[in-house]
Each structure stands twice: as structure tokens, then as C-alpha cells.
Design a protein that fits this description.
single chain; alpha/beta; 10 strands
Length: about 325
Amino acid sequence: MSLALQADEAHLRRVGELLGNGARQAPELWAPGVCREVYVTVPGAEIRAFHCRPAVPAARRPIVLVPGWGTIPQGFQGFYEMVHGQAELYYLETREKLSSRLGRKPDMSVLRSARDIQAALQALGLAGRDFVLVGTCWGASMILEGLLSGELDAPTIILADPMHTLWFPKWVLRWISPLLPAALVRLMRPVLRQAMLGDMKENAQKQRTFAFVNSADIWKWKKSAEAAREFELFGRLQKVDRELFVLNGTADKVHDQSHYPRIARELPGGRFLFAPVDESHRERMFAAVALQFARQSAADGLPASLAGFEKRVR
């Protein structure tokens, strides 16, 4: 079943209403004194989280954001600006990020990162609470792996642009990457960045991705990518039998829009939300959708304000 992801005027109007007046004025979430910075101890590593809580949150539930591959907080300032003053936010990084503190010979697998997320949810006091878990891109993939293994769960889960497999070329990860020392890859970073992403048409996402690559810990990226070279979600998702919301609104060289309805379709309880926006507003749209869920309990299901964004996938 193919699904045409085209934005008509009604769709665009609803997205405009969802975003409202756009981002609010907000300090940088990573700046000292803005959010509480904590490190969570997990097996073989420590991972960083930021916790931001308004004095009087308008939303009923906290939002936990697990960002994508190798991202840095600067890339999600737009997300924070949308929820600032509205909802309690946990920004949770994983072990391939620059911020992680790793022990000797750490496990860099996708399943280990999924277990880290669950351990962090417990350490941050979210076990037993009603909250909204949002994963973007590779963060959503880690969450799905945790659901498949039965080792991760949350009351409401939003999967924003989930990756069914790692975007890096498989043949490189199998035959080339293991032979290249991290120091050489580090020297080749500008060339590799340009070769893989130089022709990306979406300027805002291109600049974000370049910033992630420029700040990357090459050893962590290399080991994590090699550990994920056989990772594939397609064909496995039918084992996750619970309601999940798959969210998309843009496309670019890294994010293939045709994958998201398929992921929702393969999930027995998958529901697909399409909220088309300009690529420069991608992260703000994710936050706006998460806020709608955070304003009600998990038992309420899909907010009425988002019903117009759902597309049938079966």
C-alpha cells in the first residue's frame, strides 16, 4: 500500500495552528544554570541528561526527548523553545554522543543503548509516572529496539522520523571501517562529510547535520556504526503489540519519507501522523506534537487536536 505524502491547504493550515506563533523566547538549554545537567551511570558508561522544569508547567506530563545519532543540544534548541515554560523536559543523550563517558571496551550496540534509555528513565525518577517519550531519527530506532527486546517501555511513545536501519553504507561498515583507525577517519572527516552530505538540498537540516559531524567523537561513531551494521527493523516490527505514534513532516537526503508509513503499518498498533512543515521547522513541529500529548494523560490516546494529521496505513 503506497501513501502519497502531500500537503494540501487544509493540512498546512492545521500545522500552522499547531505551531501557533512559533518558538518562544528561551535561553539555550545547555547553558549553565538553565537546565539541570546530570550524568546517569549505566553499565560501562555514563550518559548525560538535561532536566528543565517550569515553575508551573502548563502540560500535565513531562516530555522525555531521545535525539538522533550523534546529535548535540544546539540542534534541538527549536524543540526546547517550543516547550519552554509549557512542559517539564528531559533531554536524554546516548553513548555515541560526544558527552558520554565510556569505560574500557564499552558495548556500543543498539540494544545496549536501548537498555541505557530504560535505566536512565528509572534513575531520573520517571518509573511509574505518566510521561511522553519522544525519539527522533536514530533515537526512535533505539526505542523500537528496546520495545522489541521487552526491556523498554513508556506510557506514550512518539517515533519521529524513525530509521529502520543505519543510514551509513553497509559495505563501508562491513569492509572498510574496521580497517581504518579512528585517527585516519578523523583526518578524513571534511572529505567524508562533503561526499555524503554535500549535495543535501535542505539547508537548515544540512547545517544541523554538519554541526553534528563536526562535533563528533569519531571513535564513538565508528564503533557504534560498526555495531549497528546488521541492524534492521523492517520485518521485525510486528512483534511490538502496543499503540505507537509514528510522526513525519519533512524529507531530506537522510530521512526517506516513504519509510515512515511502512514502519507504522508493520507495527500492529502503529498510527501514522503526517504534519507537513518547512524543513527549518522540523524540530519545532516535533515539540508541538509532543506538547499536545503532554497536555493530557496516556489513557486519553490521540489528542483531538491531532486527529486531522492521522493517515490510514492499513
